[in-house]
Design a protein that fits this description.
The protein has about 400 residues and is mostly helical. Helices cover about 70% and strands about 0% of the residues. The N terminus is likely disordered.
């Protein structure tokens, strides 16, 4: 196999544009915000809300290095994220009758090295809509944090099952769970994580929320089946890819947002807007993920570069490249299974505009996500959600 490094070096600039176009949308969204609660809310309600629900003894306010208020979404919900992994460990341990290898395996990927993107999205959306609807009680926030915790558990369980199906050897720079233990035990560990997450979900005692998040599990399974299929028609092929991306990645983000806005007491429009935010952020995230498979090193990704091609998967960069190089169609149809297919596909992608077109499509989905926030009351959390679109679009790993 050719050395992919020389292609990666040439293409790193694709992931680092000078300025993200998403930022220009923020002022537009602010101008169109018309929710009636803005005029009647006491001016210090946001600060009181932050102090009551997010402050800790050593973190009374969220500020940047220059002393101004920090709207970085990860900082805004930092106090609630701080104990998230420990809380998940406690839940996984607490449902075991006795100590066993199952406990160790189920906690293996909960090591604090993940991006925590899903709980950050869920929590920022929760706080933004709590302010929007004046739902500022502690029970609501407690249940919304459970949604964030469950979202991370569902995501991690899906990683366990993905690594089993893909015969992965590494994950986040360390030995994969299926390699360290074995396939059968790893499968049960993934199922156990989902089982504990489902029990936490039932404890919220909100039937609508249970129904909403249950859809995520159905979508994940459907997404895995879709990944096994190929479409011959170019139009159907791209639609199939985007639908698969929703099911495997964006569904969890979209429905977590939806669940937390239901808990906030949001209107039907609020619930739909939050869903569209999560949906578009999720699809953009997957598009960038597929782009990074071509331009980032294995060290940056924590997994082998060009992994998707080696698994026989035609992602957005390949599908865009096939428009310029129709010879890719045969490679896609046989899932890059013949000797030299992976190298040839990689080279043709780098010689096309496939990477740039993928980045542009991700940008469009980020813009749609930000537009879904237009009618949301202004707050640090809304600004953080806009900033999160920038983060997703311009990430390097």
């Amino acid at each position: 196999m050719q050395n992919f490094g020389r292609f990666c070096q040439k293409l790193r600039c694709v992931c680092t544009p000078p300025t993200s176009p998403v930022r220009c949308v923020r002022s537009v969204g602010r101008a169109r915000s018309t929710h009636c609660c803005v005029s009647f809310r006491p001016p210090l309600v946001r600060e009181r809300y932050v102090a009551r629900n997010l402050s800790t003894a050593d973190h009374r306010t969220v500020k940047s290095d220059d002393g101004s208020r920090d709207t970085d979404p990860f900082s805004l919900v930092g106090p609630q994220l701080k104990s998230l992994i420990n809380d998940i460990h406690s839940e996984l341990d607490g449902h075991l009758v006795r100590d066993s290898e199952l406990g160790e395996m189920s906690k293996y990927y909960f090591d604090g090295k993940g991006k925590a993107l899903r709980p950050v999205i869920a929590l920022c959306v929760a706080h933004a809509y709590n302010i929007h609807t004046d739902r500022l009680d502690e029970l609501t926030l407690k249940n919304q944090r459970k949604i964030a915790l469950i979202s991370e558990m569902i995501h991690t369980a899906s990683l366990v099952h993905d690594d089993i199906l893909d015969h992965a050897e590494t994950r986040r720079g360390k030995e994969s769970v299926n390699l360290r233990f074995n396939t059968k035990k790893s499968t049960m560990a993934g199922d156990y994580i989902l089982g504990v997450g489902s029990k936490i979900l039932a404890g919220i005692q909100e039937p609508d929320v249970v129904e909403i998040l249950s859809q995520v599990l159905a979508d994940l399974v459907e997404g895995e089946f879709m990944q096994l299929q190929n479409k011959d028609d170019e139009g159907e092929r791209f639609e199939h890819y985007l639908n698969k991306s929703f099911n495997k990645t964006a569904s969890l983000m979209a429905y977590s947002c939806k669940a937390n806005v239901v808990l906030s007491g949001g209107s039907k429009e609020d619930v739909e807007n939050s869903f569209q935010y999560g949906r578009n952020i999720g699809i953009a995230f997957q598009l960038v993920d597929d782009l990074l498979d071509f331009v980032s090193s294995a060290d940056q990704l924590g997994k082998p570069a060009a992994a998707d091609l080696q698994l026989g998967l035609a992602t957005a960069p390949v599908l865009f490249a096939a428009r310029k190089f129709p010879e890719l169609d045969d490679l896609i149809a046989r899932r890059f299974s013949q000797e030299g297919d992976v190298e040839k596909a990689f080279r043709l992608v780098t010689e096309s505009n496939g990477l740039e077109e993928t980045k542009e499509l991700a940008r469009k989905h980020c813009l749609k996500a930000v537009s879904a926030l237009d009618d949301l009351t202004e707050s640090e959390y809304k600004t953080g959600l806009v900033q999160l679109a920038d983060t997703v679009l311009n990430r390097l790993k």
